[in-house]
Amino acid sequence: MAQLPPTWPTPYRDGAVRPLRRGELVAVDGVTAVVLTALFLALPGPAWNSYGGWSARIALAAAMGLPLALRRARPAAVCAVVTVASVVASVAGAVREPFLAVALALYQVAVTAPARRARILAS
């Protein structure tokens, strides 16, 4: 097996890299939230000028993207906030692909929900 540079994570179990720790996962979620918010701002929707211009767009993008940083701590609350903001952004035409954030938030809810609750939510 090739030697890894000393700054890389040390492999374990047949050369696999260790799983990320909780703090590292939260940091990844924070970066994802900021990148998604910037993406929502960079890609204007078809009618973003007719509903308040930049101020409304910034508020909706922040309400859709930034809560995703907390999706591991409070998945259901984050999913609710992101869903409401995405529906408003979709109706207003302020952002393209507003339901991308809902997909990320809903995934975390599905992964962390107990099996019985997941079946109820799916039906």
Entry keywords:
two-stranded antiparallel sheet
Question: What this model shows, in words?
Answer:
This protein has 123 residues and is mostly helical. 59% of the residues lie in helices and 3% in strands. The protein has 5 helices and 2 strands, in the order ββααααα. It has helices spanning 22-42, 53-65, 75-92, 100-112, 115-122; strands at 11-12, 16-17. It has a two-stranded antiparallel ribbon with strand order 1-2. Strand 1 (11-12) and strand 2 form a beta hairpin. The protein is globular. The chain starts with 10 loop residues before the first strand and ends with a helix.
Task: Write the topology of this structure.
Blueprint: E1 11-12, E2 16-17, H1 22-42, H2 53-65, H3 75-92, H4 100-112, H5 115-122
Antiparallel strand pairs: 1-2
Helix pairs in contact: 1-2, 2-3, 3-4
